[in-house]
Amino acid sequence: MAIGAAAALVVPGLVVAAATAPATAGTNDQSVSGVASPIWQTNQPVNALAVANGVIYAGGKFTSVRPPGSNAGTNETPRSFIAAFNASTGALITSFNLSLNGQVNALEVSPDQSRLYIGGNFSTVNGAALRRLAAYNLTTGAIDPTFAPNPDKPVLTIESTNSTLYVGGSYTTIRGTNQAYLASVRASNGAVNTAFAPTFATRPPSTCPPNQPTCTVTTYLPSPRAVKLSPDGSQLLVGGNFVGVNGANSGGMASLDPITGATEPWAANDPTTGQPINTNCVGRVTDIAVQGSQAFVTGEGDPPGCYEGIYAANISDGSMNWLSSCLGGSQGLTILNGVIYKASHQHDCAFSRGGAFGGFVGGTSRDGFVHHYLVGQDITDGGFVHWTPNTNATGSPAIGPHVIANDGTQLIVGGDFALVNGQRQYGLTRFLANGNHATPVVPGRSYNNDPWPNTVAHVVENLAVTVQPTAAGTLTVQVPASDDADSGTLSYQIYRDNGTTPIATLSAESYTWSRPILRYDDRGLVPGSTHSYRVTASDGTFTSPRSTAVSGRVGTSAPPPFASVMSSLNPLSWWRLDGNGDDSSATGSHPADLVAGVTTGVPGALGGNGAMTLDGSTGYLTSDNQISAPNASSESVWFKTTSIVGGSLVAQSTNQTGQGGTTDRAITMDNNGGLVFAVRQPGAGSPFGPAVTSFRNQGTVWNDGTWHQAVGVYSNGTVSLYVDGQLQGSATATDRNGNVVQAAGMPSSYLRVGDADLSQIQSVFGINFYHRIWPMSQFLGGSVDEPAAFDQALTAAQVQSMYAAAVAGGA
Q1: What are the pLDDT digits (tens) for 245-271?
Q2: Cβ-proximal residues to 761 (8 Å cutoff; 6+ apart), any chain
């Protein structure tokens, strides 16, 4: 279902072009500010939130609170696991000072806003013996001593009507009644409604792998973690760590009759309909949000690869409407103004999407994870919206945000974080729903993310503004798109030689994880002259500072024709694709065969030159003879696409057509429009494929519907990826002793453009555990031109000469 939905969601990409007037910027598809508003902090994690009558109630593991901006251990005010804050100012409400002797896991305000229910691990409240569940009167400010359900183990979640509470947790008895894990109690006195009697199936204990004596066996209790009533009160939705309810193996999600606890239909648990939570993985539902006729379900898992995204289902029968798959445990959901805001530590949403882009693709290992702790998704289809403030994670385990709530005017977030948008703020933060407040990131700035666990920062992308000589009298300026925590489309003003008036304004949509490269050709410059360039980004209201200045020297003469440059590099094979698959290399011995869905005669990358378009499902090009693949080699291809399902740009394969065989030296586009260049390494590799050495653009995307040139170079164990004449990065394979590992090498292979079997050259962590092929499609949908293979490692100057000649030729 995910593959079919994604294919249907391919939309036109944004064509980036220079403009003479400021472009429309600041596109907003949601209303919440990306800038945090002041609120007091806690000294330990916040696990639960509730809002009533202009007051934010927070519960968790904390024992003190302090003002915003105060360092840990300073200006502390004691609070025992629960505190209240003014919803408008974020200030501590000093008159609310309950004393509990254990942590709070759940807070719930009754619909009439007369009571605050508190659930957790405590056994006393203000010195009175009230175990794990208490009711606080919001009118009188007193604990109700007559409300005493007294479950025998912790309470994890609460849902209420004005007359009834549904209480989930790890308990086995409540009010002396053997009703385990989920009970219905009366709001008046805590007495159990015995007619409500669902039963839950326990997950078997974990097992230790062989030869791992340090492994700890985990015993799982079938504890509900989320309980929500349907808006009409006819169904009770329950999610948690169980594997079945009322004798049925239904996974960690169920719909129950709120009077009897009998099971109601929930079609999303059917493994044939999508990716259910908890039926085949040690995972659990962590939160449920409801609005109208739909429920939105999220979860987390213990081993890598468990479902941790969001799905939307009809409350009436649980039939799924959309599924947004992600990796990285999700903890909380809340809905505000048509957007689902999620608290999580997601690091791979390769099969989701956002705007004109695919979802972000994860790193190759845990050390390379980039966590997006706060995101928003459109309620209609799950696509990401432009709300991307961020936190870090400091707990054990390091989770980040634990819970998220709203009061209609703002979002409130609690967790174990110590930073919010890079500023010190522990445990609690909030974001007002009053529009654009964030300033765009300076173009070309390094993008860092707090890692797992919180030790040192990992650089996601470090692309500066670049300038290079290309056509006669021309310097080509490339600007990596920036991002903004609460806006989507930004405009970029380019300034030459510290001028006060921009020479050009460009515009593009971007996300933190999807940033296209914008190009501007500054023409009519004096040959041999040197010029510097700086760039700002604007969302229409706020403008970033100028980027660091970069300089370039205009060429003293025009570059040679593109064909001359290519011939001088002596490619093994070179297909101009100007109406046919002829080989324009010196030998001409490796022409291309056109397979299935290939259209010829379309406009090419260079002026006056044709290209070919591939249909994205059957069409590709393959050499009709094998070519040699020495240890030092290079590949080049021009491409134009708006695909959000990825595809193979160019690769070498032992199979001339079809799937199977051995694929090597592959330049691949991922579902997000990023590029990977990967070569195979000797050895067994992982259980899911051989070892590979690869460099991947993480955050930069190239599926913007304009022509780009990708060049992959391999030499002495190092892979390097160039795009549009600029080195994107390199990676070197070494063994555990630090010795460089050479690629396995393929003595002979077929050059293939637009399709290759990528199943054995996977290079992204999350894919191994999804057990799904990455990218979503191995066929590239888009146009290709001038593919070539070389039996040498091209230098940076040679790569740049190809690009400069192409720009001079009208690329």
Answers
A1: 999 887 889 999 999 999 999 998 877
A2: 663, 664, 666, 678, 680, 689, 690, 692
Full DSSP string of 548-561:
PPEEEE--SSPPPP
What single letter denotes the amino acid at residue 384? F
Per the structure block, which two tokens stand in for 89? Answer: 């100012």
d(CA 215, CA 208): 6
Residue 711's nearest CA partner among 780, 790, 616, 647 is: 790
C-alpha closest to that of 279 among 309, 331, 242, 320: 242
Name which of 178-182, 206-210, 512-516 the model is least confident about: 206-210
In this structure, the strands spanning 700-701 and 515-522 are parallel
Structure tokens, 244: 């079945």
Cα 620 to chain centroid distance, Å, stands at 30
Q: Per residue in 312-360, pLDDT tens?
A: 999 999 999 998 888 888 999 999 999 999 999 988 887 787 766 777 7
Report whether 132 contacts 150 (CB < 8 A).
Answer: yes
Contact 486, 465 (CB under 8 A): no
Q: What distance in Å separates the CA atoms of residue 677 and residue 699, rounded to the nearest whole number?
A: 15
Distances (CA, A) of 398 to 28, 344, 391, 452, 800: 31, 11, 12, 7, 44
Dist. CA 662–CA 757, nearest whole Å: 8
Given CA atoms 671, 672, 678, 683 in this order, what sign does their dihedral have? negative
Identify the residue whose tokens are 């490339």: 478
Please give the order of strands across the beta sheet that includes 41-42. 41-42, 64-66, 77-78
CB atoms under 10 Å from CB of 601, counted, come to: 13
pTM of the model: 0.91
Cis peptide, bond prior to residue 397, ω within 30 of zero: yes
pLDDT digits over 499-518, tens only?
A: 999 999 999 999 988 899 99
Give the span between the Cα atoms of 344 and 323, in whole angstroms. 16
CB-based burial of residue 54 (10 Å sphere; 0-12 exposed, 13-18 middle, 19+ buried)? exposed
Single-letter code of the amino acid located at 277: I
